[in-house]
Structure formats: structure tokens, C-alpha cells
Specification:
Number of domains of chain A: 1
Low-confidence stretches of chain A: 151-155
Order of helices and strands of chain A: HHHEEHHH
CATH superfamily of chain A: Winged helix-like DNA-binding domain superfamily/Winged helix DNA-binding domain
CATH topology of chain A: Arc Repressor Mutant, subunit A
Shape of chain A: elongated
Oligomer: homodimer
Radius of gyration of chain A: 20 Å
CATH architecture of chain A: Orthogonal Bundle
Number of strands of chain A: 2
Strand order of the largest sheet of chain A: 1-2
Distance between the termini of chain A: 51 Å
Number of helices of chain A: 6
Strand content of chain A: 5-15%
Largest interface: A-B, 39 and 38 residues
DNA sequence: TTTAAATCCAAGTGAATTAATAGGAATTAA
DNA sequence: TTAATTCCTATTAATTCACTTGGATTTAAA
């Protein structure tokens, strides 16, 4: 019941992209260095985000990636589902409305899986990328204030 | 982001035990047949539930297992955590209150993991085994009514 | 026009984890 | 004494994960 590195690294990567890309393209190599993730592996992660329409790739020299839509309109749920596939705790066709499961009528545990699935998806859909960007900027401001305090106390 | 067979089979197994054990011990062999799970594998699952104090084992011939506490006092969360380990989406010391993580101050994604973790644990802690037992009995009643209808229409 | 920087893509690989299987020791009711 | 059962540990087959490798393609800039 753990997210893989796809989800963990991928969320860090797109947050990095959103924080550092102010209408400018960001090359994967920069994200790779800042986030300490292999550039080759990052390619695979960003490729999923691209297929999901979350980022756009710009090819060629000086190329890179940009958000395809504003950070206010991208939920963490969109990002994690693009990276990980569905966030359901089990593969159960009932959860997706298929109702082709042969033991559907005697299956009681499906109610449990449904409750877990809904709670996860509601949680991640309620957090927008822009919130994380704001939080991240706040955190970095605090650190630079702390550092300037330290510097001034040294004078 | 999937539960393993430990959680899925294990929940079915203890639900079977709760439904069929009315103050009587239930042998693993019976659960294994009804739930179509290898008895050897079931042993490993039930052993985790035993260590967590959820079931008691009674050794020897005519032995088996019983719930260690009433089904009303056992949450699905207790069961799944006993079987799977913690239900957190990532291994993050902050989530467990350790606060020894070196990148804690610049880590923004931890808020996401915390929200997911809380929502999962709240969901499973809000379902008691007794509810599943009731649901299961209801389902089986409905099936037997359906069958008696069928039988009477054949007369 | 060449070159270097970048995305894009598919296949391969080693390590780790999962899902069992196997075999036997210990216990106990009949 | 026997058969049924829990209890415990080790092994194994299959799968998944987390990358790595090796290119092909595109494009800005020299």
C-alpha cells in the first residue's frame, strides 16, 4: 500500500517545474540536478505527465517542459493518477462501474475497497498544484530570512 | 498503490471466521475451502492477526481460531494494519512524528502524504468488522430468498 | 550548415518484493 | 495412540520496481 517512486519523484518533479518555470521552459537536466533524480528516469515520469496533458514538451536545443495548464487547475490527484495509474487499493471492476464481477453479489469487502478508494481520491483531488507552489515559496522565504538573520548576527 | 493479497485474503478470512464462528472455533481448513485460499498461506495471514491480538488460536485436534475480542470492537483498520503493516502511502518519518528527516524543512510533498494517510486511516477505522458481518448475513439471506422463490415457481 | 542541447522512445537488466509452497515440530481431543 | 490441528521456518517461482542503455529526432545558436 505504498506509492512507487513514480508518484513520489514525479510529484516533486512537476512541483519543481511549476516553481522554477515562470512562463519559461525548464530542461529536465535542471530538475534532475535540483531534485537529485536520474535524468533518464525523469524522462519516463514526465512522459506520463505529457500523455495526460499536464505538461507540454518543447523539443530541440533550449527546449524543455512547461505546464500545459495553469497550476490552479492541476490537482495532485491528476498528477498522481497520471504517474501511478488509478489510486484504487484493489483491482475491482465494481469500483469502476463495470459490474461484470461474477462474485459481485456475495462480495462484501468491495464496500471497504470503495470507501478507501473514495477517501484517497477525494483527498488528492482537493489539493491543487498551486497550493504546493505557494507552500514551497513560503518555505524558501523562511529559510532565506533565517539565513540573513544568521548573517546579520555574525556582523 | 495496491493492497497485497495479505490484506485482501486476510480480510476475507477474518470475515469468514466472524460469520461462521458463533462462539465456536473455526479450523483454518474450513476457511481455506470456503474462501479458496491455500491453507498454508492462510496460516501466515492468521498468524499476523494473532500477533495483533485480534484472534486466538486453539491448538490440537478440534482446535481452530476464534475472535479474541467482539467484532464490534475490531475495526477494518486494525485488521488491515495487522496484515499489511502501516497504511501510509510513503515511508516518511514525519508522518509517524519522528521529525528526524534532514530535508523536513524544504519538503512540501509531506503535506500531501499526510492528507492521504489520514484519509485512508480514517476511512478504515470507521468500519467495524461487525458491520461487514451484518452486511454478509443480509446478502446471504437475500440469496436464499431468491432461491426459494425460484423453487416455489418451479412447483 | 554544422553542432550541441534537448526531447522522445523502446528495450533490457539487476534487485527486491510478493505469493506462495514445503516440511516438520508441538499440542490436544477423541 | 492416533489423527487433527496450530505453529514455525525455510525455500522458491513469479512478478514488479527502479532504474540503465542506446539510440532517433528535433531545433536554437554558432
Amino acid at each position: 500500500m505504498k506509492l512507487s517512486t513514480k508518484g513520489r519523484y514525479g510529484l516533486r518533479a512537476i512541483l519543481d517545474l511549476a516553481v522554477h518555470g515562470n512562463d519559461e521552459v525548464v530542461a529536465l537536466s535542471q530538475i534532475a540536478v535540483r531534485q537529485n533524480i536520474s535524468i533518464n528516469y525523469l524522462e519516463q515520469l514526465i512522459s506520463r505527465l505529457k500523455k495526460a496533458g499536464i505538461v507540454n514538451g518543447i523539443r530541440g536545443a533550449q527546449g524543455g517542459y512547461v505546464l500545459a495548464i495553469p497550476a490552479e487547475e492541476i490537482s495532485v490527484g491528476d498528477i498522481l493518477r497520471a504517474l501511478e495509474g488509478d489510486l484504487d487499493p484493489v483491482d475491482c471492476s465494481e469500483l469502476k462501474g463495470d459490474s461484470t464481477c461474477s462474485s459481485s453479489d456475495v462480495c462484501v469487502t468491495k464496500y471497504v475497497w470503495k470507501r478507501i478508494s473514495d477517501s484517497i481520491n477525494d483527498a488528492v483531488d482537493g489539493i491543487m498544484l498551486s497550493e504546493l507552489v505557494n507552500e514551497s515559496k513560503k518555505v524558501h522565504e523562511e529559510i532565506s530570512i533565517k539565513n540573513s538573520d544568521k548573517a546579520s548576527s555574525m556582523c
